[in-house]
What we know:
The complex is a heterodimer.
Chain A: H1 2-16, H2 24-27, H3 37-40, H4 49-96, H5 103-151, H6 155-196, H7 202-251, H8 257-311, H9 317-352
Chain B: H1 2-22, H2 26-43, H3 45-61, H4 66-91, H5 95-127
Helix pairs in contact in B: 1-2, 4-5
Amino acid sequence: MRKWIILLLLLAAIGQADASSLPSELTDPLPPGSALEELEEGETGVHTLTDGLADLWEEACGHLLGMVKESVSCAVLLLSVVVICGLAQDCLHAARGDEAPGYVPMVGALAITWIAAGNMQSLMGQGVETMEQLNVYSKALLPTLAAAVAAGGGVASAGVRHVAGVFFADVLITIIRNVLLPMVYVYVALAAADAMLPGHRLKTIAKAISKCTAWVLTGTLVLYTGYLTISGAVAGSTDTLTTQLTRSAMGTVPVVGNIISDAAGTVLAGAAMLKNTIGVAGMLGVLAMCLVPFLRLAVQYLLYKITAFLAGTMGASQLVDLVDGLGSAFGMVLGMTGACALLLLISVISSIMVVTV
Amino acid sequence: MDQIFQITAVCLIGAVLTALLRKNGTEMALLLTLAVAAVVLLALGGAVRDITDLVTRMLHAGSIAPELFVPLIKTVAIALVSRIGAELCRDAGAGAIAQALETAGALCAVVAALPLFQEVWEMLQTLL
């Protein structure tokens, strides 16, 4: 009789821990054409983290060449503008020996801004769209993960992590949308104006904006990680103690106490497995969402920096600084997208790391 | 390669003759300087045409709007012409006319770049 009860409870535990079907809340928010099609279809029965990362890597390699080809034409245009202005300045400088007229680099700066601005609008739009998608995805992922953590015995940890994750994600997205993104546009305008005006005093304001953006993003992530570490440690000990006390209390029940205690341990282990599966799926989902926009921004950033480096050997310094500044603007948007993704990944990883059994 | 040797030879001969003519009067020297500068610029016309054709073909191949490069090329041309003209005026001892010519060159360059400026301004307005 005892053996039948154990068998029935084990079967119930296995049913609980069936991780082959993910909740639809995790797969529905993934955008169409995202990197992990298997994840959208919910086929994660044999999908480990390594498999998922390998799929993402293949996807990234497939997209990379096309993105580089798209962006190289823009870089060549920028370089040609810098070369033309550089040649003109050299001719004019040779003619008289003093500084060439300022309107030549001014027109060069206008041409560079025009080439870059169209590019910038589409890529920044893509970055913003990705951040919004991550925000929507976090609203599905974090509660699902919190429920899985709570089912595994981490009730207090689940509550703390869920609230912190949602709060910090909202705060970060709000700051990015309302403060940092407008600051990036102002940065671009300042970089263009600085290239056209003598004195280059606007460069210091542009640098301050860039530093401010980096501080805000880093500060938010550091605060979130610190809060998780401190509150997680307290909540984790509470959960462990609660689980142990509960199991000990169950063990004191006469006749079936030990059976129930052992079965509860099995259920908790199953719930932990489910939590890990949801966590891995969530991580892969976040990475899949960010992959293409991140690659595009990264390629654009690198190409602008390389163009600025090459232009530095032959062009006017204000035009080189402008190209470098435009590359930094792409870098800022890249940082913002990366910060949103990193915040979600930290939430997921910290939930996976919760151990209560 | 041959062209640069020819141009150098013409400029050197012109410089020597200008130095000789200056003793008798600056008017003839100035006219000779003008003539040498005009000959050099006309000689460069073929090279400029070849470069312009190549740039035009590249722009068409890359489907790049001419509004981008035409103002830039015009500005560079205005800068070169006004600088050479101003130097000729200074050679003639007319510093004020040279300065006026350079100012006119700057204004004409700004006018030539106005379409580009308007495009960038509209784009920045949509961004901001």
